[in-house]
Amino acid sequence: MTAALVLPAVLDIQQAAPLRDDLLALRGQPVVIDGSAVERLGALCLQVLISAQQTWARDGLSLQIDQASEAFAAQWNAFGATDYALAQREPA
């Protein structure tokens, strides 16, 4: 069964540890992330998401952004993270 994770509007330094904890709680199953509400993406949360994407890939599981706000996609790409699968999703 695929798990769902809805991201908050602000993914700043205060959200990095809770985001990590939320993702770790879902480890071992495919995950679809809803990024439609994201207005601001900070570097630490970007690192958490990239690390999760790589961890899920090593585990042979899917972790993807099902929806990404324009702000989420623009900020992800502004960090230069265009080589990662999460960044390649079209904005909602």
Q: If you had to describe this structure to a student in words, what would you say it looks like?
A:
This protein is an alpha/beta fold. It has a single domain (3-88), classed as 2-Layer Sandwich (Transcription Regulator spoIIAA). Helices cover 41% and strands 21% of the residues. It contains 3 helices and 5 strands. The chain has helices at 13-25, 43-58, 70-78, and strands spanning 3-6, 10-11, 31-35, 40-41, 63-68. It has a 3-stranded parallel sheet with strand order 1-3-5. It has a two-stranded parallel ribbon with strand order 2-4. Helix 1 runs parallel beside helix 2. The termini are far apart. The relative contact order is 0.20. The model is unreliable at 87-92 (pLDDT under 50). This is Chemotaxis protein CheX. Pfam families: STAS_2. InterPro entries: MlaB-like_STAS, STAS_dom_sf. Residues 5-80 form the MlaB-like STAS domain.
Output the CATH class name.
Answer: Alpha Beta
As for the number of domains, it is 1
- Sketch the major β-sheet: 3 strands, parallel
Average pLDDT over all residues? 90
Query: Low-confidence runs (pLDDT<50, min 5 residues)?
Result: 87-92
Protein name: Chemotaxis protein CheX
Summarize the structure.
This is Chemotaxis protein CheX. With 92 residues, the chain is α/β, with parallel strands linked by helices.
Topology readout:
Layout: E1 3-6, E2 10-11, H1 13-25, E3 31-35, E4 40-41, H2 43-58, E5 63-68, H3 70-78
Parallel strand pairs: 1-3, 2-4, 3-5
Which keywords apply here?
92 residues, STAS_dom_sf, single chain, Transcription Regulator spoIIAA, disordered C terminus, 3-stranded parallel β-sheet, two-stranded parallel sheet, MlaB-like_STAS, 3 helices, Chemotaxis protein CheX, alpha/beta
